[in-house]
Amino acid sequence: MKLPEKPPDISAVSHTGLIERVLALGLGPDTDGRYLAWDEIRRHEPPDGFTSVQWWAALSLVRRLRRQALPLIDARGESFGFVVTDEVNALLHQIDQTARTDLQELNERGHLRQERVGNRFVFQAKAKGEKRRR
Length: 134
Fold this sequence. Notes:
This protein is of the alpha+beta class.
């Protein structure tokens, strides 16, 4: 199996006007809904006005700005993190909407018990035969 090509050193890329061009194009952390690595990016046609390396630098910048760190460290001392893309946000919204509808239906039928814990509500399925409380 062939190892993927390592990404270029983006510190050597001129960042002059890069942020303005990223904003003008509305570049996100992904490409056509796919979160591509350098080895794949270099095989795609970059947006107008970008070389492949500049495009990679722009994507890296956007990804760094949107990165959410996790309290996990790898063997080199680097922290793990993740980026929530627009597609993931849309899917999370869909899950949220579906779950809300399902919870409302279960609650209306008296199949849920809810209690307030701090500033959150906790929902639990009622045990079989448990009486509905009003």
